[in-house]
Amino acid sequence: MAWREVERVGIIGAGVAGLATAKTLLAHGLTCTIFERGDRLGGVWSDGYSNFGVQVQKELYEFPDWPLPSDAPNFTPGPIFQRYLEDYADFFHLRSHIRLRSLITKLTPRADGTTGWTFSVEQDGRTHEQDFDLAVIATGLYSDSPNLPASMGRRTSRVRSCTFRVSKPAHRLSASAWRLSAMARALPTSLWKLPRWPKQSTSSSATPIGRFRASSPASCRGNGAC
Fold first, then answer.
1. Ramachandran quadrant class, 75 (left: phi over 0; alpha: psi -120 to 50; beta: rest)
2. Among the residues of the chain, which ranges form H helices?
3. CA 199, 204, 207, 210: dihedral to nearest 10 degrees?
4. DSSP SS3 for 164
5. Are 151 and 206 in contact (CB under 8 A)?
6. What SS3 state is found at 20?
7. In a 3-state reduction of DSSP, which class is residue 127?
8. What distance lies between CA 46 and its chain's CA centroid?
9. Residue ranges of E strands in 82-209
10. Which residues, 6+ apart, have CB-to-CB distance to 91 below 8 Å?
11. pLDDT tens digits, one per residue of 101-121
12. Model confidence pLDDT, tens digit, residues 156-207
């Protein structure tokens, strides 16, 4: 199908990429529907871990045609960036195109032979299908379930970084948890492990390729790895 023949576009994900894609395609006169499995737009920014935020200066992470507010701090805190995305959606009239709590369970070529895709949409316990000329997968890198190897017999809790909401014992954190480890060192625990597991490994006997072990917050600070 030539680009000039595309009329209806289905977009999976209402995060940064999905919103920007919809805004651009709508400006070109296309009809867009954005499917978001969560309760609100924003993707990873809508429900981030405790004290999360942008990890670069604000000028390096903003829409060119919708700058962050002038009073937004550098390394923009997550809640402020979420509000920024909400305002972006409102200004460019994107909300009416977003279908919240809509999980795409299957994406298949159209059965009638027409070029395009059939979306299987699960919403409120029911599944229906919609056809589109073009499919855009804007789910990002962090929307899927993480690889969590077995505990290898150790009695321990494991916390995915995106679910770290309040200060609580965090014996195992993901490889992206350097910021969380700085908070964890204030916790009353005698042992923390911050392994970096091989992404493809599913074996319970997998060996961490990076490990930090601290007997106390003081030794953690002395090591410098936190």
1. left
2. 16-27, 78-91, 178-184, 217-223
3. 50
4. coil
5. no
6. helix
7. strand
8. 9
9. 98-99, 102-109, 117-123, 126-132, 134-137, 192-193
10. 66
11. 999 999 999 999 899 999 999
12. 556 665 555 544 443 333 334 555 666 666 655 544 444 444 444 444 433 3
Pairwise CA distance, residues 188 & 185, whole Å: 8
CA–CA distance, 35 with 139 (Å, rounded to integer): 10
> β-strand 192-193 against 213-214: which pairing, if any?
antiparallel
Give me the residue label for tokens 């651009």.
Answer: 24
DSSP-derived letter for residue 10 is: E
What are the residue boundaries of the structural domains of the chain, listed by start? Answer: 3-137, 147-226
CATH fold for the domain made of 3-137: FAD/NAD(P)-binding domain (3.50.50)
How many other C-beta atoms lie within 10 A of the C-beta of residue 35?
A: 24
Separation CA 28–CA 23 (nearest Å): 9
Q: Rounded to the nearest 10 degrees, how much is the dihedral formed by the CA atoms of 172, 174, 179, 185? A: 10
